[in-house]
Amino acid sequence: MCGAPGGFSQIARDKTNKKGHVFLVDIARIKSIPDIKEIIKGDITKISTIILLQESMKKHGSLDKEVIVLADCSPNISGNWITDQARQIWLSEVALGISNFFLAEKFVTKVFQGEFYLELLQKIREIYNQVKIHKPETSRKRSSETYVIAKERKNKELPLFNKKFLILED
Ligand SMILES: C[S@@+](CC[C@H](N)C(=O)[O-])C[C@H]1O[C@@H](n2cnc3c(N)ncnc32)[C@H](O)[C@@H]1O
């Protein structure tokens, strides 16, 4: 989710020795990337985008594979920290909803720490048994950016549309 211009997707592709089915969704238009199954230009907060992704996964025979949702969303930065941080957390929460939609076994998301961060962590913990916080060395020490890595999905059979976590609008 929010994968343009494609650095993380290429790493995901390479880490799986090109065996993993990588789908990239971003609101920005980008050129094709070799061995990425599909690049979907769309807003992740719109259900129509997620339906497109689902159709594409079906077309490529990916729906019965283990799903990992990797979200690196940053909103358009307005310069107002409170607004930008809240928007970023909201995008991460939408990504969590998407991870729930696809019953993803693992969920990784960037977060800007601040207001609503602990609530988001709580929601992730409700879905996953193992939740770790990781600050990559490449991320500036003073920046509030960090990554949450969640593994071991608790409930394997939640309904696809779970209103509690899926906050999508069209
Ligand atoms: C930090 S960049 C991602 C970089 C990417 N991980 C990579 O390795 O190339 C953040 C991305 O979030 C995307 N984004 C922000 N809001 C979005 C939304 N509502 N739907 C889809 N993408 C969104 C931006 O277009 C931008 O490309």
Q: Would you give an account of this structure?
A:
The protein contains 4 helices and 6 strands, in the order αββαβαβαββ. The protein is an alpha/beta fold and 170 residues long. It has one domain (7-165): Rossmann fold, CATH 3.40.50.150. The protein has a 4-stranded mixed sheet, covered by helices on one side. A two-stranded parallel sheet has the order 1-2. β3, α3 (81-101) and β4 (106-112) form a beta-alpha-beta unit. α3 packs parallel to α4. The longest helix is centred in the middle third of the chain and has 21 residues, at 81-101. The protein is globular and about 40 Å long. The mean pLDDT is 91. It binds S-adenosylmethionine. S-adenosylmethionine is lined by residues 2-8, 26-28, 43-45, 72-75, 91.
Overall spatial form: globular
CATH C-level category? Alpha Beta
**Share of helix, binned:** 25-40%
The helix tally amounts to: 4
How many E strands? Answer: 6
The N- and C-terminal alpha carbons lie at a distance of 17 Å
- Structural class call reads alpha/beta
Uncertain ranges: none
Bound molecules: S-adenosylmethionine
Helices and strands in order, then pairings?
Blueprint: H1 7-15, E1 23-26, E2 38-41, H2 47-59, E3 68-71, H3 81-101, E4 106-112, H4 117-127, E5 128-134, E6 145-153
Parallel strand pairs: 1-2, 3-4
Antiparallel strand pairs: 4-6, 5-6
Bound molecules: S-adenosylmethionine (SAM).
